[in-house]
Amino acid sequence: MPVVTTRVTDLIGHTPLFELAATDTGTRLFLKLENMNPTGAAKIRMAKAMIDDAEARGLLRPGGHIIESTSGNTGLGLAVIAAERGYRFTAVVDHHACRDKLRTMKAMGTELIFVSGGDADGLSTSAREDLAEHMALDECAAALREGREPNTYFTEQHNNDANPLGYYVLAEELLADLGRVDALISAVGTGGSLFGTARRLRELGREPLLYGVEPVGSIAFGGPGGPYWQSGTGTPEGADPGKTVAEDLSMLEDGVKVSDVEAFAATRVLATKLGLMIGGSAGGSIYAALERMDEFPAGSTVVTIVGDGGEKYLDTVFDDFWMSERNLLDPATETKVAEMLDRYAPARGRRAATPPADGTHTILVPEPAEAFASGATAK
User: Can you give the pTM of this predicted structure?
Assistant: First the structure.
């Protein structure tokens, strides 16, 4: 990453690692803080990869129009790239998306098209994707009728081969900073971040155990569908998990379902206990990882990808009234999370390292990009 740049997209990547937990057997849990990217989310990596790919294949040219169905974070990434490169961007959204994501996209010049009216806040993934696809097809057909070459591109993140490719660099960053990854446990929505990272790790000769995490009510791993409030993750009933999930689901050691109560309890406790603001889907992954700390092989390096930050959810996950209205507040579950954090406090289980002066957590700040190329390993 350059020290001085004129493009926001140059600031993508090289995000830090935060050591959250460790066992007496030397297993360590690191959080890859992707909320430190521009837009505060991992998905800007794949948003850039999808547009780079479209440009390379001649599907998008100067002055073109990008269309995507999004719950927010992919849209935020596309909004940055559209503003930077001079594209028009239309995001097809529903009222399930958090308001701050919608307001931020609009501030960057995005056109918002809602599939549900009024104050309905249900998740409408299938309807969003159908509308986005039809909008793009109609616009391309109109251009052909007028004798123009179409210049509208539906990124279709769930079925775009460039989506997982956007996370290959993330895998390289993990190896540069940690030297090894023995287990990867993270949320699965489109599947890009978990499976893209895992694909690249395998290409580089590592084969970590993979644990996918989805909300209770999501249907990607099987089981009955139902409503859920975790944002930007899972596959609601009636929606298609997409190409990446279909191709790579067999790579999973386990597909874990975490309830909204458990995911949001972890999110809230990390904020109050550690001052670490993360999103709800990351809370689900962390909850699942903490429950399994003693099940990982001794000495494992475990990584969870934190997809986005908690600042976007002040009106939802961090709002007691919103949580109470939906019966999502559970002091017993929050207590359980706090007890797991105490039990696995890193100072008790750190391997081959001197505890820091403050006695608790390690943050690994990445070296420059050349570090991976030069074969740097664990710090």
Answer: 0.89
